[in-house]
Amino acid sequence: MSWNENYQEWKRQPHLQPELRAELGEMKGDEEALKDAFEAPMSFGTAGMRGVMGAGIGLMNIYTVGAATEGLARFMDTLSAADKKRGVAVGFDSRYHSREFAHRVAKVLGAHGIPSYVFDDIRPTPELSFAVRYLHTFAGVMITASHNPKQYNGYKLYGEDGGQMAPDALEKIVDQINSVTDLFSEKVSSEQVLRQTNLMHIIGEDVDEPYLENVASVTINHDLIESVGSQMKLVYTPLHGTGRVIGQRALTNAGFRQFKMVAKQAIADPEFPTTPYPNPEFSQAFDMAIQLGKEEHADLLVATDPDADRLGAAVRQPDGEYQLMTGNQIASVLLAYILEAHKQAGDLPANGMVVKSIVSTELATKIANDYGVEMIDVLTGFKYIAEQIKSAEDKKDKTFLFGFEESYGYLIKPFVRDKDAIQSTLLLAEVAAYYKQQGLTLYDGIQKLYQKYGFYAEKTIAQEYDGVKGQTIMKKIMTKVHEQQPTSFAGVNVQSVDDILKGVQVSADGSETALTLPKADVLKYWLEDGTWIAVRPSGTEPKIKLYIGTNGENQADADAKLANYETSLKQWISGIEQTIK
């Protein structure tokens, strides 16, 4: 149907939510808004779906959430009775409608006779991953839009290993979702009936306690925490999200007693009133933490995003100002600390492995290689890191030591199969204590790594393309990117290109070598000076992501090269944009 036919169909629904009906009235006459809402249904990608909340087939609401869940339920109807009976764990964050959407998931599942285990209140995404494994459910659903602005919400789907749903099962589920042609036809059961028939269970502290017990195993040197960490001052902000529920308990349990929470940002507020972009990648997310840090003379500031899977940090400098660290820098100091601790303890496994995304720093590869540990590069998306962990467990051929993405996501212990900012907060605080004992900071720590392994600089650039029109522009840009292969950036020749969509690496002389990565719409350019540049469309947001990783003789040299490459890369993309407008 056309967007107008879809719009009229929604208007005819007699039992449409009053809030959504009011939005339909507000859209009247705004053709662009109507097209965004009604021209195309929400796409369900490898990580689920995410979008602006509102009325329409292309926005997040109880009907699109219900349709996604109907697809999951229809798939589970094809399973054995035993697998179907295992049910689905359901979590939600602090955003508008998150609780409502989570309970809608339970109501749709219950209508199919599928049990659900729904958290009693907001919880971090990594705890939902843990709950799937701990309760042995067949799947998990997390209602969250992670670090997006307040108007967004999302639906993340997890498999029985606690990682995002495996591709084979996901493909079948998406087929079932696409078969739901009437968003208003799915059956739902009442919560009261579901509770009375044991098809909806409320979980909370009974999962919190075992999760926290596992989190406690992340710290390495308990004597260090007791002697230094217990007196070290740190500031923690959950950015109005789920981290406040578990984060402060985890820090207290570990022995970090001198920490303060940013009071206003410890309120679970879906408006995110103090930080319109609740993303620890952005410096403004630290404004209030820096203010409190200066008052407390805190050594370390830590921020977790609203669903507490990403972590950012800032370090106090001798002049009292705070230096923000990048995700690559945080990952590198964590990795070096983990590997050195294992080496000192004499238990560094011979088959140890570290896993990172292909757009993350090569500094980590140098660190891993120095300790005789294998680095495995995977596509962007923590599901691919989870796949490597599962493969290693199944084959019993490798020992997982650490996994990360440059976008501020890290995993230390695999009792969770997604990035976990609660785990990361504890270990980063311990590493800060380690350097403090030496009269140094975490920032000094990354500088020491640079001095040992080389000076690295990385940057991620997000080009935004909103709305249905934006999706079309993104596709055209990526088509041009594949067609127009540049031979150089900033005057430095391209040595080879990883065309991951085609599954080959193409050298400058035209020769091709097969890649082992799964096919994805990603191009990665390797330059003659060791720099790499990557281009990919985001799987969860209307953005094309541009990545640069370079190195130099010193930090100034690396930073200067990074700036030159950024200018060149932006000019290239801008030129492509001009050709399609």
Give a concise summary.
Keywords: Carbohydrate metabolism, Glucose metabolism, Isomerase, Magnesium, Metal-binding, Phosphoprotein. It is an enzyme of class 5 (isomerase). The chain is an alpha/beta fold and 581 residues long.
Account of the protein in words:
The protein has 581 residues and is α/β, with parallel strands linked by helices. The protein has four domains: 40-203, Alpha-D-Glucose-1,6-Bisphosphate, subunit A, domain 3 (Alpha-D-Glucose-1,6-Bisphosphate, Chain A, domain 3), CATH 3.40.120; 211-324, Alpha-D-Glucose-1,6-Bisphosphate, Chain A, domain 3; 328-453, Alpha-D-Glucose-1,6-Bisphosphate, Chain A, domain 3 (3-Layer(aba) Sandwich); 456-580, TATA-Binding Protein (2-Layer Sandwich), CATH 3.30.310.50. It is 43% helix and 21% strand. The strands form four sheets. Strands 16, 17, 18, 19, 20, 21, 22 and 23 form an eight-stranded antiparallel β-sheet that branches. It has a six-stranded mixed β-sheet with strand order 1-5-4-2-3-6, with helices on both faces. Helix 4 packs parallel to helix 6. The protein starts with a helix and ends with a helix.
